[in-house]
Specification:
Chain lengths: 234, 630
């Protein structure tokens, strides 16, 4: 089996070296590129497909979420992971909306790091209870507030910008997905959730990935909408 | 006073130019009126007869007979007496009998029957009709052809009944062609009843408007003017009405009192307009008002004309006083409007003097054309202009005041906004400051303490790597918990517990400890502060760390059950070796309970939770927390 190719962008040299060391130490991973800023990464990324991209959010030349958005567009098949110190809700939600599929905590051990990369590549996106709770609340708010907005969206009418950032309605959650989110928010592990729902762990992971995908769709809809507003698209 | 007058005169006072023009027109017309009868008299075909044979029969006095000069004034001879008179005039012979001829009697009072050559040609008022006054207007009588003799004079006999103080008597009589006489009569009617009707209408209108203003604003200036105008109408109405509303002399008293009040109120108005009058002037005007009501009443009830004349003289004096006031204002102020009022007032005084001396007293040859009413109306017009100016000034003042108030309110609002913004900024600053203090304390108590412990361990000669690693992990746990505690959890304790598990699950799994997660969906708990969350997390972390370090357990059960009234019961039960006997039920502060458990008790106390550490029902240890946040 081919090793998983990994690229990373991190402006802190020590952290970059540490990450590189952890990747190199794991035989099933191959470090394809380690960039110090967004410009360098984007230049390289355009011509070199990789399986996993690790992105530090605090880059000097481009906001991390913007970099993630561009990379996700350039290589949709690439799984983007955010490197973060805390994994706090606000940062993570923005990253997931931009197209990230996982995250690495900077204070994890090097062994943890390799495990997480492999797990992500295998389709296992992590989700903290706080984020699950937040996503549930957001979807509930949209469902409660806007059957009308949904109807409009189905009729092909672009909602007004005044309606706020949440204007382009996210694709609705399925009942199973909402159930998964609820159980995560209550502290159950994927394995326990699989047991409670009588499905396999892989299915739970698929639900989580789909939920992230809908977040991404949400942000894509928004991007298309904004592009239309700006006159870039018909 | 000067300020008051200036305030009355708007800078944009185009109106007084108009008033000046009006004034000039009326002046010219008045002159034309005076010249009118003279010119008519000069025309050849109209003859004026101003002598008569009179037979006078006053009540309560000896009758007289003899030639009189016309106009003949009954009151001048028999002041205060009623009576009857027969005037006999000789009409000249008519050269051409086909010529239509007419008579014009300017004034005959108070009831009269006119006969020419023994034929009655006109009769105005019956013998005892006290309501009709033939003197109200001039009388033109077209003579039937053949009534006048061609060969000699024809007698004209006028039988008149006079009431006391009613200005009875006979004016000169004119005879001439019908066309000429009619034209003359029309001109007299125009300046008599015609003008009176116009004046009455104008005064009613002005008075009504001014009283309306007074009703709304209670400004005595408006009230005074309105009353003055309404009193003024009475005298003009008398000329327009077909007959008096009351019998004589009651009607006469009413007219006289109305007229006197009219004049007195006009004077008071001028005084008011000039400014807030001093108290003595107020008292003086009140006294004048009382006098001019009283004097004519006495005069007409006692039928002695002197009282009424005295009242008029007082009014003339008051008028002179006002005139002086306005003159002073005009001289000091040099205001065009003051001069305008002065001119009209002067004209009024002249007219008043003319009427008093010539018409009423018959001095200086006498006159039968009272001028006061015309001059008065002119003055009233100008004064109405003052009322309008005052009103518009008031409105302008109110607008300006409104504007100023609006500006002040806006300014005050702006200040309030600024103050509010400043206060909010201050509050925000305080909140941020408080939060910083709190975070500093957390860093100090939490990760700071861990790092100090780490430093102490590193400094020891024989460093246990495992212990060092544990200490570092503790520090990292502490930091993550601090971060988690800062995340918005929206009063959701379930998520707090879930997050703690999420953080610790890998380590428990690595240690081979199975987690039984028995956390029910807890209701929202208002008052779940970051501090409280952090303390609860620390208690649970301590308990789990104890399980990891000392319990040698294979399973840990975490249970959370909602208790009524916003409370929750938490339990952490392991299946390990249990506590050392001494630690289990020792009091919290007993050193035997171990430092970790003491810390847990302290933290539980800090958030108002009750904590029990006891042996589990099936061995191991049970940590139970009952907590009601907020």
């Amino acid at each position: 089996m081919n090793p998983v190719t990994v690229a990373l962008v991190e402006d802190d040299a020590r952290m970059r070296e540490r990450l590189a060391r952890a990747i190199v130490a794991e035989p099933s991973l191959r470090l394809a590129h380690a960039a110090a800023d967004a410009g360098a990464l984007l230049a390289w990324f355009a011509d070199n497909p990789v399986d996993v991209l690790l992105v530090d959010l605090g880059l000097p030349d481009l906001p991390g979420t913007e970099l993630i958005r561009r990379c996700a567009r350039m290589q949709p098949a690439c799984a983007v992971m955010v490197i973060t110190m805390f994994g706090d809700e606000a940062t993570m939600l923005l990253s997931f909306e931009a197209g990230a599929r996982g995250y690495l905590l900077k204070d994890g051990t090097e062994a943890d790091l390799a495990t997480h990369v492999l797990s992500l590549h295998a389709g296992g996106s992590p989700m903290t209870p706080i984020i699950a709770r937040q996503l549930l609340a957001r979807w509930n708010a949209v469902n409660a507030a806007a059957p009308a907005a949904l109807a409009l969206a189905r009729a092909g009418v672009a909602p007004g910008r005044e309606a706020g950032r949440a204007a382009p309605p996210p694709e609705a959650l399925s009942r199973r997905e909402a159930q998964v989110l609820d159980l995560i928010a209550r502290g159950f592990t994927y394995t326990e959730i699989a047991g409670q729902m009588a499905v396999s762990v892989t299915t739970v992971q698929t639900h989580v990935r789909n939920i992230y995908g809908k977040l991404g769709v949400h942000s894509k809809t928004e991007a298309v909408y904004e592009a239309r507003q700006a006159g870039w698209l018909p | 006073m000067t300020v008051a007058l200036r305030r009355l005169l708007p800078v944009r006072a185009g109106w007084w130019r108009g008033a000046l023009l009006c004034f000039a027109c009326v002046l010219v017309m008045a002159l034309a009126l005076d010249a009118g009868p003279a010119r008519a008299a000069a025309e050849a075909p109209v003859m004026r007869i101003d002598t008569a044979l009179a037979e006078l029969r006053p009540e309560g006095a000896a009758p007289q007979a003899g030639p009189v000069t016309l106009p003949h004034r009954w009151d001048k001879v028999f002041g205060g007496r009623a009576g009857e008179a027969t005037y006999t005039l000789m009409l000249p012979a008519q050269a051409d009998p086909r010529q239509p001829t007419a008579l014009l009697i300017e004034r005959v009072g108070n009831q009269a029957r006119v006969r020419v050559g023994g034929v009655t040609v006109a009769e105005i008022g019956g013998p005892h009709d006290r309501r009709t006054d033939a003197a109200r207007r001039s009388i033109a009588i077209a003579l039937p052809p053949g009534l006048l003799r061609a060969d000699g004079p024809t007698p004209l006999v006028i039988d008149a009944a006079m009431q006391a103080l009613r200005a009875g008597g006979l004016s000169s009589v004119r005879i001439g062609p019908v066309a000429e006489i009619d034209a003359l009569d029309a001109r007299l009617a125009l300046w008599g009843p015609g003008a009176a009707a116009a004046y009455a209408g104008g005064l009613l209108l002005m008075g009504g408007l001014a009283l309306g203003l007074w009703w709304r604003q209670r400004d005595p200036v408006y009230g005074c003017f309105g009353l003055a105008a309404l009193f003024g109408t009475l005298r003009h109405l008398d000329k327009v009405l077909p007959e008096a509303l009351l019998p004589w002399p009651g009607w006469g008293a009413l007219l006289a009192i109305g007229y006197a009040c009219h004049l007195a109120l006009i004077a008071r108005f001028v005084v008011l307009v000039l400014g807030r009058p001093p108290a003595w002037l107020d008292r003086a005007t009140a006294a004048v008002l009382a006098a001019v009501v009283l004097l004519p009443a006495i005069s007409f009830s006692t039928l002695q004309p002197g009282w009424w004349t005295a009242a008029l003289a007082i009014l003339e004096a008051v008028g002179l006083g006002c005139f002086a006031l306005v003159l002073r204002s005009a001289l000091v102020e040099r205001q065009a409007i003051a001069w305008l009022v002065l001119s009209a007032g002067g004209l009024l005084l002249l007219a008043g003097a003319h009427d008093l001396l010539l018409v009423r007293m018959g001095l200086f040859g006498g006159s039968s054309f009272p001028l006061t009413s015309h001059a008065m109306f002119l003055l009233v017009l100008i004064l109405a202009g003052l009322v309008v100016a005052r009103y518009s000034q008031t409105v302008a003042d109110y607008r300006a005041l409104n504007q100023r108030l609006a500006e002040r309110i806006a300014e005050r609002e702006r200040q309030l906004h600024e103050a509010f913004a400043a206060m909010r900024a201050q509050q925000h600053e305080q909140a941020v400051q408080g939060e910083r203090q709190r975070m500093m304390r957390e860093i100090h108590d939490g990760i700071g303490a861990q790092l100090v412990g780490l430093l102490g361990m590193v400094g020891q000669p024989a460093v246990d790597r495992g212990a060092l690693q544990d200490q570092v992990k503790l520090a990292l746990d502490e930091m993550r918990m601090a971060v988690d505690a800062l995340q918005p959890v929206h009063d959701d304790l379930t998520t707090v517990l879930a997050t703690l598990r999420y953080r610790l699950q890998p380590r428990l799994a690595a240690a081979g400890i199975e987690v039984v997660w028995d956390v029910q969906a807890l209701p929202p708990m208002p008052g779940l502060s970051p501090q409280a969350i952090l303390q609860l997390q620390r208690i649970l972390l301590e308990a789990i760390t104890n399980v990891l370090k000392h319990a040698r357990a294979t399973r840990v059960t975490v249970a959370a059950t909602p208790r009524g009234d916003n409370a929750v019961s938490l339990q952490l039960i392991d299946n390990g070796v249990g506590l050392p006997a001494a630690a289990a039920d020792a009091p919290p502060n007993d050193p035997a309970s171990g430092r970790g458990i003491a810390n847990m008790h302290a933290r539980a106390a800090a958030i108002g939770a009750s904590l029990r550490v006891a042996a589990g029902a099936a061995g191991g240890t049970c940590v139970a927390i009952d907590w009601q946040p907020g």
